[in-house]
Design brief:
With 126 residues, the chain is α/β, with parallel strands linked by helices. It has helices at 8-11, 20-24, 38-41, 84-90, 105-120; strands at residues 2-4, 33-36, 53-57, 59-61, 78-80, 94-96. 29% of the residues lie in helices and 17% in strands.
């Protein structure tokens, strides 16, 4: 099981995750992986070897921001925020990248070359 805790990257701190390290630490022993934003990943420095692997979110998107959000999305954006080397330096065991379908053609079209570029630049250890 993989727990995705990265929604806060697009929406801000989620209720109960204001202290990310304290909230997520108990889950690390019962899941296989945790998807984190780069900032969240830095808040889990003392993870034990037998605990969940840390997966880092490689891009940011405003697609989760609905009409009720303070800054609703009027145009869809997807922005790469890390390189594979950055992920490795943060201690991630894997990377998570969005491949957006059903949005503007320009947004969809950028996903394939971005994903391919990420894979080609990925160090062998990640």
């Amino acid at each position: 099981m993989i727990a995705d805790t990265s929604t806060g990257l697009a929406l801000g701190a989620l209720p109960g995750l204001e202290d990310f390290g304290a909230a997520v630490h108990p889950v690390l022993s019962v899941v296989d992986g945790v998807v984190c934003s780069p900032g969240q990943l830095r808040r889990l420095p003392n993870r034990k070897r037998d605990e969940a692997g840390l997966l880092v979110l490689m891009d940011w998107s405003n697609t989760l921001r609905g009409p009720g959000f303070a800054l609703p999305a009027t145009t869809t954006y997807r922005v790469p925020i890390l390189t594979a080397q950055d992920a490795l330096e943060l201690g991630a065991v894997a990377m998570v990248s969005s491949f957006m379908l059903g949005y503007e053609e320009e947004v969809e079209a950028a996903c394939l070359p971005d994903a391919l570029s990420l894979v080609l630049r990925c160090p062998a250890r990640l």
